[in-house]
Amino acid sequence: RPRQSLAGKKVAITAGPTREALDPVRYLSNHSSGKMGFALAAAAQRAGAEVTLIAGPVNLATPAGVKRIDVTGALEMRDAAERAADLCDIFIGAAAVADFRPAEVAQQKIKKRDDNSEETLALVKNPDIVAGIAARKERRPFTVGFAAETEKVLKHAQGKLARKKLDMIIANDVSAADSGFNSDRNAVTVIDAAGSEALPSALKTELAQQLIEIIAAKALKQ
Ligand code: PMT
To answer: Counting atoms of ligand 1 from 1, which one is nearest the CA of 146?
Structure first.
């Protein structure tokens, strides 16, 4: 595979969790560290691409030469992703976007009730960022998603590939030891219309380089 395979191309990548505010001091979120998405951004930059990295709240240094946009909630990530997608050739959704957000964000800290009654939290669905970009009729980048699954990994990932109309999906067994959320390593299966390719456990930095080579080869063939 050629080096600098993405020279002259623009790549946008989402990474990390989103944080959905409940009140001024509380939020809903998940265990994504951003490591996978940041590693992809670094690998795409090394492959010659102009990279925009849309990052949820994470504790990671920005890879050299990468343009980083920090966001907090899913709606803010969606807006930044849509703007980046207008200009990019390849879009990769590596973020763990919260599927739901509180229906209302309380202006003041929510108080405990004096009795011991249950508290109920009303949630509304967040927009599906990667599916929105894949559904475009115009200015549609080559669109890649991840699938974080705990069972029937390939079956569920194939379902998401079709339902979200993605060009490629990277299936992640997040229940496996030393893999998935927050780990330095990951093991994935890349799936597209042509078939699938398993990439065994490796450091996310190494895996990212393999993934970028695979994505570049497919995206540029289109
Ligand atoms: O950040 P790390 O700690 O390194 O962990 C990496 C990771 C496990 C988070 C990453 O490899 C991964 O699998 N990311 C996707 C996590 C996820 O939310 O998967 P999902 O199966 O729920 O979503 C499927 C796809 O739709 C993903 O591309 C996701 O970004 C996208 N999505 C989901 C919901 C939503 N509202 N908008 C989206 O764009």
So the answer is: 28
Question: Is position 91 annotated in a ligand binding site?
Answer: no
Residue 170 region, left (φ>0) first, then alpha (ψ -120 to 50), else beta? beta
Task: Decide if pLDDT at 188 tops 80.
Answer: yes
Superfamily for 10-104+122-221?
A: CoaB-like (3.40.50.10300)
Could you tell me if the CB of 174 is within 6 A of ligand 1? yes
Q: What is the ipTM of this complex?
A: 0.99
Check if 182 has its Cβ closer than 6 Å to any atom of ligand 1.
yes
Rounded to whole angstroms, the Cα distance separating 143 from 104 reads 32
Mean pLDDT of 16-33: 98
Per-residue pLDDT tens digits for 112-133 = 888 888 889 999 999 999 999 9
99 is in an annotated binding site: yes
Sheet holding 90-93, edge to edge: 67-70, 50-55, 10-15, 90-93, 142-149, 168-173, 185-192, 195-203
182 catalytic per annotation: no
Among all chains, which residue has been given the structure tokens 């050629």?
A: 2
Query: Is the predicted pLDDT of residue 75 greater than 90, yes or no?
Result: yes
Calculate how far, in angstroms, residue 214's C-alpha sits from the geometric centre of ligand 1: 19
